[in-house]
């Protein structure tokens, strides 16, 4: 089984344009992410997929593996173009703005497919438990509900399940946007048109559900530091500084 990791990266971002080229210590955010993914040792190949010449040149200048793609609405569509001709069985999508990725949750995702002898699972992803009312109601946090076997039923920016009655056993989970795909499922995804639910929620994995593909969710305690706004970059710099001074880091 050949397993690769792809980091989709675009320069423009509505809330923080150019964030992937911001410095984190003496390295850019995108190169820090690339380096940390490669150093897990889990993958036969790691590459960045981008439509930005600036990001392409940044990775290339460090001797990294990078491919230029066309423009795409989602990271999954971008990755599908990048891996179409590559020899691989499983593809992990690691977000370019998650510089402190850990090996344990990535390894958990890979193990899903190694144990799926009947090839029933198209996609695996991560979820983390939420407890604060602020997090649960935050529309920037994508929520996920699953069945009793931890297969995703739905993703939403709204509160799901809705607490019409308070029940002590109801738990709330946030979706962590790290994915692992079978190559054939990813290529199929890219050929399928967006449907209204995905367009409405702006959550790409809804497309898999709408077309009947199964998503296995793995609970994790890893949340990382997604760099969405300038304040997140400052938080990441503090984590890096703490790590370099011998403190506890997100890695």
UniProtKB/TrEMBL annotation:
<dbReference type="InterPro" id="IPR003329">
    <property type="entry name" value="Cytidylyl_trans"/>
</dbReference>
<keyword id="KW-0548">Nucleotidyltransferase</keyword>
<dbReference type="InterPro" id="IPR029044">
    <property type="entry name" value="Nucleotide-diphossugar_trans"/>
</dbReference>
<dbReference type="InterPro" id="IPR004528">
    <property type="entry name" value="KdsB"/>
</dbReference>
<keyword id="KW-0448">Lipopolysaccharide biosynthesis</keyword>
<dbReference type="Pfam" id="PF02348">
    <property type="entry name" value="CTP_transf_3"/>
</dbReference>
<protein>
    <submittedName>
        <fullName>3-deoxy-manno-octulosonate cytidylyltransferase</fullName>
        <ecNumber>2.7.7.38</ecNumber>
    </submittedName>
</protein>
<dbReference type="GO" id="GO:0008690">
    <property type="term" value="F:3-deoxy-manno-octulosonate cytidylyltransferase activity"/>
</dbReference>
<keyword id="KW-0808">Transferase</keyword>
